[in-house]
Amino acid sequence: MSVSQFKSFMECEARTLAELRDEYTRPHSSALTVGSYVHSAFESDEAFGQFINDNYNSIFKARGGKYTDFEQADRMIETLKKDKFAMFALEGEKEVIYTAELFGVEWKIKVDNINHQRKIFSDIKTTQELGKRYWSDKYSKYVSFVEAYDYVLQMAIYREVIFKNTGEYYNPYIIAVTKQNPPDKAILHFDETRFDFEKEYVQMHLPGVIKTKNGETNPVRCETCEYCRATKQLKNTFEIEFLLD
Ligand SMILES: [Zn+2]
Questions:
Q1: Gene3D superfamilies per the record (predicted)?
Q2: Vertex 18, ends 134 and 203: CA angle to 5°?
Q3: Residue pair 15/228 in contact by the 8 Å Cβ criterion
């Protein structure tokens, strides 16, 4: 199991299973490429160069110059590189893989940045605005982008897997940078009590996820994602009240 696979199962079991069985591929998202571009810039010069080579046609216009998204991404990279505290938080080993058993399942994580001297790990997250509110069914309230994208869950799992490997609880940090012009930025830490909720949440949902993954139960369709919309067959009517469910 990985954090992204667990998150994907929580979004839509049917789509995730179809992806795992190579029956469906999610459409290419440019937001994802921009995030990877920013990440690779802080990984190493080689990684950044390789990323640009691999995604040349997504980054550069045929007539020359970069697409607007990547000009923006360059400003985001510059913003962080000019900030001494952000660069301090990003000091460490890059892209380190750990595995450990959690809740009876083998997990694999890839930590963007880990610093064993300071016992911290950190990750860059790009977002629209630091203070933007998102409705969350999981938390039953408006939340920040950090909860909305399940980054607290990610940090909680990473913290446990790192603990199983090192015997120490490391502190996670998010280096947030916005897609505004000029970009805003922040270094975020977490109240430790948040991790207990996330661990209980994973523990509660993991058995169902594993059953679905092993083909022991039928995958639940979310009926709203691109996969579900593309494969939907109508069988019934429903009362208008359920439109907002
Ligand atoms: Zn779906």
A1: 3.90.320.10
A2: 55
A3: yes
For 139-160, what is each residue's pLDDT tens digit?
A: 999 999 999 999 999 999 999 9
How many Å lie between the centroid of ligand 1 and the Cα of residue 43? Answer: 33
CA of 6 relative to ligand 1 center, distance in Å: 14
Average pLDDT along the chain: 95
Q: How confident is the model at residue 184 (pLDDT cuts 50, 70, 90)?
A: very high
Annotated domain spans of the chain: 3-26+81-244
Distance 58 CA to ligand 1 centre (A): 27
Looking at CATH, the fold of the domain delimited by 3-26+81-244 is given as Lambda Exonuclease; Chain A (3.90.320)
Distance 220 CA to ligand 1 centre (A): 8
Which has the closest alpha carbon to 175: 189, 161, 159, 162?
189
The model's pTM is: 0.92
Please report how the helices 151-166 and 193-213 are oriented relative to each other, as an axis angle in degrees rounded to 10.
90
In this model, does residue 187 exceed pLDDT 90? Answer: yes
Instruction: State the distance from the centre of ligand 1 to the C-alpha of 8, rounded, in angstroms.
Output: 10
* Calpha distance 94→116 (Å, rounded): 12
Three-class SS state of 185:
strand
CB distance 52 to 59 below 8 Å = yes
